[in-house]
Model the fold of this input.
Amino acid sequence: MIPLKEAIAVRHSKAEKMPFNQRMFKGELSASEYANYLKTQWDIFNTIESQFTLPHPGFERSQAIKSDLEELGIEPKQVMVADTYVAFLKRLSQEDANAHIYLNYLALLFGGQMMKTKVPGSGKMYAFEQVPELVASVRAIQKDSWAGQANLGLDFIIDIFRDLETLN
Ligand code: HEM
Done:
């Protein structure tokens, strides 16, 4: 079986190159655009954390995202595809959800660390303690067979970036 990182490489690259993500990476998002993005992150992370067990409690993001949104003080607009992803996540078993946990939490731990200084506000969502322990807790349970679910997750993320670009 293809190693997981390789199996998601095509869609990872597509997600990375989405115009909204590129603008976020260059520090070009307005506070209201970033608030819309944070709301999509809230939808995803809060669903995962309400419904499933994380490989390490240090991953929990709900409070940090809530606090980032409060700091911006802007009412976000809703991205419909994020609702579709949430509905999809809610129907998963813990094992299938683990692939989406891998996808979304490692995204914050890796790419996210470069994003932290580029976004409006203090970026608590990207602030993790015990990073090596967090990475190790995912690597300990990671399976190459998560590729299908992880790629489905990336398809949702790509659609979310597409919708975010057209919201404002
Ligand atoms: C500007 C956007 C992004 C950049 C610059 C970026 C960059 C990176 C880099 C450099 C790594 C490799 C880290 C390493 O191996 O040491 C990585 C890994 C990863 N990224 Fe991204 N990324 C971005 C967006 C995303 C998005 C949107 C997702 C999914 C929601 C994502 C999910 C992942 C995952 C799951 C890994 C871990 C792969 C593995 O080692 O198994 N990334 N990213």
Notes: The chain has ten helices and no strands. Residues 12 and 128 are 22 Å apart (CA to CA). Residues 4-167 form a domain with the Heme Oxygenase; Chain A fold (CATH 1.20.910.10). Residues 31-51 form the longest helix (21 residues).
